[in-house]
Design goal:
Layout: E1 2-6, H1 11-20, E2 24-30, H2 34-38, E3 45-49, H3 52-60, E4 66-68, H4 72-78, H5 80-83, H6 97-100, H7 103-112, E5 120-121, E6 131-134, E7 145-147, H8 150-162, E8 173-176, E9 181-190, E10 195-208, E11 225-232, H9 240-257, E12 264-272, E13 278-284, H10 299-305, H11 311-324
Parallel strand pairs: 1-2, 1-4, 2-3
Antiparallel strand pairs: 5-8, 6-7, 6-8, 9-10, 9-12, 10-11, 12-13
Cofactor: Mn(2+); Mg(2+)
Family: Belongs to the phosphohexose mutase family.
Keywords: ATP-binding, Ligase, Magnesium, Manganese, Metal-binding, Nucleotide-binding, Purine biosynthesis
Amino acid sequence: MYILTIGSHSSLQILHGAKKEGFKTALVTPEKRVKFYKQFNFIDEVYGYKNEDEAVNYINNFEKNGILIPHGSLVEYVGPERVSRIRTKIFGNRNLFEWEANQKKKMSLLKAAKIKIPEQFESPEDVDRLVIVKLPGAKGGKGYFIARNKEEVKEGLNKLIEQKMIKNLDDVIIQEYVIGVPMYFQFFNSIMLNRLEIIGIDIRYETNIDGLRRLPPDIRVDPTLVVVGNIPAVARESLLPTVFEYGENFTQTVKELVPPGMIGPFCLESVVTDQGDIVVFEFSGRIVAGTNLYVNGSPYSWLYWDEPMSAGRRIGREIKLALNSNKLNMVLT
């Protein structure tokens, strides 16, 4: 049995973990990245593709003997239409892809889970406070912008339309900008063990907003929020019961609204305010790149497993548990 994934995002961690759990590994990646990935001896086979249609063909070659692990680059770069043509079984719930690609559907799912979320504005005319405007999909913050009023929102939207990043207002979400510390809470919903695990926390390192503090105060540069890296974080322990409750509410709601439910890793992307409120502004319904910090296990995964357990290895462990109990169909779609 092969574990395979697209060469980007968290692929090294995924395949390293799969190899630790005894699986054969394969990678499908753009041709220009083949040399880089071939240096890692835990990747058994590397396939370089010229275009995304060829990538789908390589993935489908593993229809009978492979499992594809999705991450943020799959839908964003291969594209939803091509992903719909993938016949190889996917670990997790592929029905979540369309929810994750639509910011408004994302927020409706969080709201249904009774999770505290920022206020949302349907029109620029309604904006009466600091907001952030977001584009759909897993773009790593590209194109996002912060605005202080409705005039700045309109100006920013016009720029995005001119740059052909969006077609109209329906392509974005306008959200209250909550002041606090960003914390991205990483979870794993185990079908085999019937439990939810907190597997890590990270903070995204964004350019250029995280570099503006080094500029003199008289220099004005418009902030951008493109994610270029991740920083590890540990939360106050008193926050964790609420974090866990949010995770449970989310998995239950996904089970009800997006069958067969939440399988494996996901992330609730949040801001913690000075009042200790946890406000969730987004979710990722699969492994997130912030887990790359913890290839040898996070402070939280150690508490569950008492051994090195990355999110990638946790995926491999769940698949192995499913194989050994003849329940593989319960973790694949």
